[in-house]
Write a structure and sequence with these properties.
CATH architecture: Orthogonal Bundle
Keywords: DNA-binding
Organism: Thermocatellispora tengchongensis
Largest sheet: 2 strands, antiparallel
Order of helices and strands: HHEEHHH
Protein name: DNA-binding transcriptional MerR regulator
Structural class: mainly alpha
Shape: elongated
Number of domains: 1
Helix content: 55-70%
Number of strands: 2
Strand content: under 5%
Radius of gyration: 21 Å
CATH class: Mainly Alpha
GO molecular function: DNA binding; DNA-binding transcription factor activity
């Protein structure tokens, strides 16, 4: 499958497919003319990459998880569940930090508005 065909089938721009390849997430073979040719299951791989990216996982983690898929879907083998739980805990921590920062910023804005509004 050519890169343009993979792009059309998955809806992922060619530039991103090249990036996934540069990050070791997607592999291709080169023709004699230097064109990329992807394996027929590349759309499944791209879907998995997009699913893991949407879950907030960085490409370095995704690279480690790609060999651990069970079947053709997006379910991962149980051997990586602890790793996923760690990623989830990190995400929860970042959300808590952002929520705290949002509250503090809102408090500053409200205090500023009260100070500047005549009684």
């Amino acid at each position: 499958m050519k890169i343009g065909d993979l792009s059309r089938e998955t809806g992922v721009p060619v530039r991103l497919l090249r990036y996934y390849e540069s990050q070791g997430l997607l592999t291709s073979e080169r023709t004699e003319g230097g064109h990329r040719r992807y394996h027929p299951d590349a759309p499944i791989t791209v879907t998995r990459i997009r699913t893991l990216l949407a879950a907030g996982l960085p490409t370095r983690v995704i690279r480690d998880l790609l060999p651990c898929f069970a079947g053709d879907g997006v379910a991962l083998q149980s051997c990586v569940h602890d790793h996923l739980r760690t990623q989830l805990a990190d995400l929860d921590s970042r959300i808590a930090d952002l929520t705290q920062a949002r509250t503090a910023l809102n408090d500053i804005l409200e205090a500023s508005t009260r100070t500047l509004t005549p009684a």
